[in-house]
């Protein structure tokens, strides 16, 4: 009944926008996680931020290596004198005459504030680590605090969370270091990198929400960091819902944020008529999370939706419609990986009893390599790609996508093999896992049928191997699913990764380094494992190898280092790569102006216009 009522509400609301040439309706799955640019780290959030905010530079068309100016008037280069000091200084002349949606004029101080707020806010599990790594060569603000104070960040506070004597001096010194790295010089904003970092422009280009430019004055009025040198700690790692930008957005972009209707998973944007470029041709955009495929399909076929997420297994259901355009074979810099939590939260509701007693699993169940390998062998990869994705995906040996430096097709692939899975289970936990059986849950985000099918495979084949094994499959709304992974509650998580910037470090570091974005989802035992020196790695840790590869300037040497990293990853089944998708897009033929770019988190509605929609 509930599903029927939701469906009726969606269809009723669609009538208001059906075939309106001034309104674009994009039906997808899920909804944003947050609209705060410095915490948003998913494509649903990034797509909204992309329309509302602007960065200093943007990618040129479909290229992932050429740039054009955006809020800066020039793209820095050695040739134009805006990259200096051997690649450590970047100068951005800031465009004049640009206004924020509230009428405030863009200034270089807004740019400075935007980056400094992000660096000092530095939320756990967010994307700001890239700014820290690119500019300072470290991973987060707490690392800088420890360097300045000589003690961990947490030791600067008493048991009530109040700063101890001397802490304010540390906060001021940390601020001064950040402030000196990003400074205003007349009409320019100058970035001083600690060392040359060639992907820096990729890191901050349009498409990366963490490079979005905020209105300093408005942000302070909303309750963000007040810009003072000694107060930033009050906002550091603020919880998602506590951020004033959680459900609010205001930038300089071609679209203004109007509403985020959480009940209907619907975001409404309207054209910025005072945009510094020509105003957008399409005056209203509705991004609508409609998890039910049949509803999305019906909306697309009737012309009530202009763009629709159509899972590849259902493409044949919309083929042959003269009003629908299917664009296939699109390149992607995306991987989908099944990851393991080696130290699940003890209070997780997804681990049953929390013990290896036949009714649950202990929190460190997947710290056993045999438990991980068993999962790797119960996934029917060919069926997933051929039957679910309808061929729109390919196998990859690790979380590194094809086309990036270091990709090695000669590395072994995990195979679907129930005999091997049984052997691994019989060795897991000294045979106790097989003898006693176990129970846990596998969650997926609703609407993603490939992830649902993967979860169902894990259940079906594990239970087939041993009747003492029980697996529950749980579908969660996207924000709920994402939060559960971040809190370390899920034993297994299935997540995709869209490149933040087109470099192998963005994938290898993310999935396999103890400081990578997914490390919090993988648990303390995972972090200990990859950060511990090992003889087979020449006395280095996996972390050491990954960070050595990131700093290496010789492409051939770098590729060899990545091969060594990946051989270790495969040997220990650190995670299970499922597939690299092959892109496909479905839209009404009256929509014009679309162009591909694998670095864009969704659509660029500003480029679109309608032809023949009445």
TrEMBL record:
<dbReference type="GO" id="GO:1904680">
    <property type="term" value="F:peptide transmembrane transporter activity"/>
</dbReference>
<dbReference type="InterPro" id="IPR000914">
    <property type="entry name" value="SBP_5_dom"/>
</dbReference>
<dbReference type="GO" id="GO:0042597">
    <property type="term" value="C:periplasmic space"/>
</dbReference>
<dbReference type="GO" id="GO:0015833">
    <property type="term" value="P:peptide transport"/>
</dbReference>
<dbReference type="InterPro" id="IPR039424">
    <property type="entry name" value="SBP_5"/>
</dbReference>
<feature type="signal peptide">
    <location>
        <begin position="1"/>
        <end position="18"/>
    </location>
</feature>
<dbReference type="Pfam" id="PF00496">
    <property type="entry name" value="SBP_bac_5"/>
</dbReference>
<keyword id="KW-0732">Signal</keyword>
<dbReference type="GO" id="GO:0043190">
    <property type="term" value="C:ATP-binding cassette (ABC) transporter complex"/>
</dbReference>
<feature type="domain" description="Solute-binding protein family 5">
    <location>
        <begin position="66"/>
        <end position="517"/>
    </location>
</feature>
<protein>
    <submittedName>
        <fullName>Peptide/nickel transport system substrate-binding protein</fullName>
    </submittedName>
</protein>
<dbReference type="InterPro" id="IPR030678">
    <property type="entry name" value="Peptide/Ni-bd"/>
</dbReference>
């Amino acid at each position: 009944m509930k599903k029927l009522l939701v469906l009726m509400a969606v269809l009723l609301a669609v009538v208001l926008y059906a075939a309106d040439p001034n309104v674009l309706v994009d039906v997808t799955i899920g909804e944003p996680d947050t609209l705060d640019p410095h915490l948003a780290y998913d494509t649903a959030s990034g797509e909204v931020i992309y329309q509302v905010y602007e960065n200093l530079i943007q990618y040129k068309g479909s290229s992932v290596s050429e740039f054009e100016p955006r809020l800066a008037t020039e793209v820095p280069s050695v040739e134009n004198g805006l990259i200096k000091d051997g690649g450590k200084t970047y100068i951005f002349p800031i465009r004049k005459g640009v206004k924020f949606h509230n009428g405030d004029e863009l200034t270089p101080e807004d740019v400075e504030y935007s980056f400094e707020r992000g660096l000092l806010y530095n939320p756990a599990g967010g994307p700001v680590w890239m700014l820290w790594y690119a500019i300072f060569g470290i991973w987060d603000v707490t690392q800088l605090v420890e360097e300045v104070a000589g003690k961990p960040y947490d030791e600067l506070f008493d048991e009530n969370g109040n700063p101890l004597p001397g802490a304010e001096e540390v906060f001021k010194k940390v601020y001064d270091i950040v402030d000196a790295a990003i400074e205003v010089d007349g009409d320019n904003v100058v970035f001083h990198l600690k060392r040359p970092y060639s992907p820096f422009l990729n890191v901050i280009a349009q498409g990366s929400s963490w490079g979005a430019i905020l209105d300093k004055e408005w942000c302070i009025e909303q309750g963000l960091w007040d810009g003072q040198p000694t107060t930033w700690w009050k906002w550091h790692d603020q919880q998602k819902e506590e951020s004033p930008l959680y459900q609010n957005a205001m930038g300089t972009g071609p679209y203004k944020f109007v509403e985020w209707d959480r009940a209907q998973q619907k975001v409404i944007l309207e054209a910025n008529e005072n945009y510094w470029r020509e105003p957008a041709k399409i005056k209203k955009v509705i991004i609508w999370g409609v998890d039910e495929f049949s509803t999305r399909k019906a909306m697309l076929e009737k012309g009530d939706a202009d763009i629709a997420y159509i899972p590849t297994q259902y493409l044949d259901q919309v083929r042959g419609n003269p009003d629908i355009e299917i664009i296939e074979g699109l390149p992607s810099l995306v991987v989908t990986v099944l990851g393991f939590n080696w130290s699940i939260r003890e209070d997780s509701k997804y681990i049953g009893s929390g013990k290896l007693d036949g009714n649950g699993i202990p929190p460190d169940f997947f710290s056993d390599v045999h438990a991980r390998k068993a999962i790797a062998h119960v996934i029917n990869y060919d069926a997933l790609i051929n039957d679910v994705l309808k061929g729109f995906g390919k196998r990859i040996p690790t979380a590194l996508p094809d086309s990036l430096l270091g990709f090695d097709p000669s590395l072994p692939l995990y195979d679907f093999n129930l005999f091997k899975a049984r052997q691994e289970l019989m060795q897991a936990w000294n045979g106790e896992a097989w003898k006693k059986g176990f129970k846990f849950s596998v969650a997926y985000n609703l609407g993603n049928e490939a992830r649902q099918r993967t979860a169902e495979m894990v259940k079906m084949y594990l239970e087939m191997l041993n009747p003492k094994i029980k697996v529950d499959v749980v579908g969660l709304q996207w924000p709920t699913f994402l939060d559960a992974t971040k809190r370390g509650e899920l034993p297994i998580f299935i997540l995709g990764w869209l490149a933040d910037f087109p470099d192998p470090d963005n994938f290898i570091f993310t999935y396999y380094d103890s400081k990578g974005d997914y490390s919090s989802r993988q648990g303390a035992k995972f972090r200990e494992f990859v950060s511990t020196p090992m003889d087979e790695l020449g006395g280095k840790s996996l972390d050491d190898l990954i960070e050595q590869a990131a700093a290496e300037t010789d492409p051939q040497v770098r590729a060899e280092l990545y091969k060594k990293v990946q051989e270790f990853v495969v040997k220990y089944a650190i995670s299970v790569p499922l597939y690299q998708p092959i892109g496909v897009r479905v839209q009404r033929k009256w929509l014009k102006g679309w162009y591909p770019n694998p670095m864009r988190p969704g659509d660029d509605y500003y480029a679109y216009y309608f032809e023949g929609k009445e």
